[in-house]
Amino acid sequence: MALVPCQVLRVAILLSYCSILCNYKAIEMPSHQTYGGSWKFLTFIDLVIQAVFFGICVLTDLSSLLTRGSGNQEQERQLKKLISLRDWMLAVLAFPVGVFVVAVFWIIYAYDREMIYPKLLDNFIPGWLNHGMHTTVLPFILIEMRTSHHAYPSRSSGLAAICTFSVGYILWVCWIHHVTGMWVYPFLEHIGPGARIVFFGSTTILMNFLYLLGEVLNSYIWDTQRSMEEEKEKPKLE
User: Fold this and answer.
1) Do 99 and 139 contact (CB within 8 A), yes or no?
2) How far apart are CA 96 and CA 162, in angstroms?
3) Where is 237: in which H helix or E strand?
4) Closest Cα to residue 76, out of 64, 62, 58?
5) What would the pLDDT profile of 8-23 be if each residue is shown by its tens digit?
């Protein structure tokens, strides 16, 4: 039996994301006042994705509790739709975008923090909030993947969706540069047009890879658990 029910974990994670978002939005930074506001940063978009995803998870848990044993076919049909939406969001957005933000941020930060998170930001964003935005996303999504099985969409539709998101965000970043003359991320100022094309292409490929990684990881976790349960059942059958 789990030490903490997964339903309680989801509520706690949702509340933590709400707290992070509220604290981040309360910070008065110059970049928040410029074109695009917070929505130009993938980190902020990811936080919204994670909060919406865990909100759907909590709503699914509540709906499941309310429909249990009711025998109402319409309620059960609505619950199945909610579960499908939850699973789609984890597969296409929450896992690949969340892991991308954590991995890319800390890799660039380790190489040269001024390229991604200038030291000046320490005057505005406390360390705990930085980790809330760029670190805890990974363990939270892995906890969700471990505690509940998620049905992935067909590979072609899943990859098409994550490609659409990736290209859409790249176009958004380029549009902001077109309007303001400034790149959202400092390191884009220091590389040439060809290198930017390579970088944007690489990020799209990486997003697709992370989608496939999530699919494989989800299957591995639940295939392994199913095998363990079958092994436990064998002595009882014998």
Assistant:
1) no
2) 8
3) helix 193-237
4) 64
5) 999 999 999 999 999 9
What confidence tens digit (pLDDT) does each residue in 127-150 have? 999 999 999 999 999 999 998 889
Place of tokens 């025998």: 71
Query: What is the gyration radius of the CA atoms in the chain, in angstroms?
Result: 20
* Rounded Cα–Cα distance for residues 195 and 31 (Å): 25
Nearest to 42 by CA among 150, 159, 188: 188
Q: Would you state the structure tokens that stand for residue 113, as one six-digit string?
A: 């923090």
Residue recorded with tokens 């709503």: 59
First to last CA, the chain: 24
Look up residue 65 and give its two tokens.
């509790």
4: exposed, middle or buried (C-beta count within 10 Å: 0-12, 13-18, 19+)? exposed
CA angle, residues 151, 21, 170, in degrees to nearest 5: 65
